[in-house]
Amino acid sequence: MDRIISFFYSFRWQDILDITVTSYILFRFYILFRGTNVFRILIGMTILWFFQRFAVSLGLVVTSWVVQGVAAVAALIIIVVFRNEIRSVLQARNLKSLLWGFSYKTVNTTIEFIVDSVFNMAQRKCGALIVFPGKEDLEEEIQRGIPWKGVISNEMISSIFWPDNPVHDGAAIIRGNQIIEVCAILPLSHRSDLPSHYGTRHRAALGLAESTDAMVIVVSEERGDVLVAKDSHLREVKQKRGLEKKLQEHMGLVPKKKPFVRKESFETVMAALLSIIFITGVWYNVTSGRDTLVTLRIPIEYKNRKPAMEILQRSANAVSLDLSGSGALIKSIKPDQIQVSLDLNKAVVGNNSYTVTRENISLPPGILLKSVYPTEINVELDVTIKKKLPVQVDWVGKLPDHLILVEAQIDPQTVEIIGGKRILEKISTLYTEKVPLDNLKGKGNITANLALNPASLKIAPGSKEKITIKYETEERYPESSKEAAGKGSE
What is the rounded CA–CA span in Å between residue 143 and residue 140? Predict the structure, then answer.
């Protein structure tokens, strides 16, 4: 169970996209090449691939090498031997049908063949006369034509009524799925109320319908109309569905759903599922190799710290993570894909101790955590306050022996500081950065930064960040210097 959970947990969104795209490509190969010799060879190569992986799992080095070589040769054979078949499949389709179309095999019934043929001839204005006997015998009503015994097809019906065919003027008699007779002569109707544009075919169809229970289809050569004669009536049919319904009623057939379409749909769904299963197995086989170990140092991110509190110090700024996973995943991992975070929402003033666990670490799917160092992180927090402190210059070095510092004015004399309460309570004076005395001469101004210690202290908005020091120096022994200068002149 743990292995199954680990298997699904190891999925990245890239893996899902990878499996989906590859599965669809494999599914499209099935749709395009099913029923061809190429498809059968591909099935054989798939079996070879499974056998090769099985040999590898058993450690059969030579066997796996031989099977792999046979598969490579078979791929070459497919391209060379079946290149014409492959080309015909690809050339017969546009880009949309290659990527999306579904080519179901069309299996027409006898009635569909007849209906298609009739309307095709009507479109070409090719005259036709087709008889469908009922229960009554037609031997006494029609003059025998030529026995045919041909299986019904579009091409068969069209060729019978082709104008250059010697038998095209007579009637074709259809029983079941066979054309049993052609060039048959039918009795003519003697009705005087028929339209003037009705020709011999129309009168022959109506004449047989008046004397028998047969149904006759007429295709007008002049107008391209399709008419049906039955029970002394001759009616025009404009749609294929209408003619198909009349034929079904005459033959006593009940319209049924096409089981073939349902079968094709089921096979298509199964092919899609098998494609996904197969590609997922290949993905798992490729990515589930021997685990690879790696150690990464990841900085700690502190979240949900209260605005009134600040971090004074922490025992570690980063942790070392020992990670494992498949070689492919480990090589693709980047440090910025991993996060180590500690929630400071419940932290209090003072020292807080946290243990780094798997819940604190965000890892990419498929990567497992082996160990963490250090596992315990100490974070010291304090409440942030403001405090105004006097500023003092931090002099270093020594003035020359003949000079003394008589004045040193600081601007500003106080600065407001933001920092932890516990730290600021211990600080009574702020110092500048070290200012050397060695180079002071006469008088002048010096600018110095504040030395904020610890670094968590900040200067409050509105306070000056730099301190200006106005200084003045004088000679230490001015009179003795003048006397020494007078003696030197004598």
Answer: 8
